Amino acid sequence: xxxxxxxxxxSPDGRSALSGEKGRCEVDGPRLGGVxxxxxxxxxxxxxxxxxxxxxxxxxxxxxVGLAVSSFTSVSLDPPLVLFCAAHSSDTWLRIRTAGVxxxxxxxxxxxGVCRRFARKDVxxxxxxGYHLGATGAPVLPGVAAHLDCRIEAVHPGGDHAIVVGRVVxxxxxxxxxxxxxxxxxxxxxxxx
Length: 193
Fold this sequence. Notes:
By secondary structure, the protein is mainly beta. It has 2 domains: 1-49, no CATH class; 52-183, Pnp Oxidase, Chain A (Roll), CATH 2.30.110.10. The chain has helices spanning 38-46, 91-99, 112-119, and strands at residues 4-6, 25-27, 51-52, 54-60, 63-69, 72-76, 81-87, 101-106, 132-133, 139-140, 146-158, 161-173, 180-183, 186-189. The strands form 4 sheets. The chain has a 7-stranded antiparallel sheet. A 3-stranded antiparallel sheet has the order 3-13-14, with no helix packed on it. It is globular.
């Protein structure tokens, strides 16, 4: 596959050439699946990178709340810090931010249906889940590969998302549970090669 190149660099107002408004992203060589919209191409190219899938959960006076994210990573060992990204437009993120604490639930490979449910807005995301409250009071779902209870340490701007840094206060893993992986726009299993 050819390299991705932008027709024009970012504009002085900071808009990316990938936005589709100020410029167009192209593939040097054959087009990527016929895609010519910069934002779509950006998502497609990033989809070549496999990620784990986590649910970020919290509790507030309205009850449990959670969202599915694939933008999760470790930041630091000392102190133990992790980060995830959440869309500014997400009402769920606003509730998690207000709670000040959250749990990272690393989904197991059999939890694609759970993840799909958490990606929807019109359902009770926790119905029948059998969750328990972790060390911070945030929901921890059963059958996860791992979970980390965190306090929000910092929130940084990141375009149309917030970059949320959390300090880990408790963690556990079940090494018998293989993680769910997201790659190429679909859920997949992790296998050793």
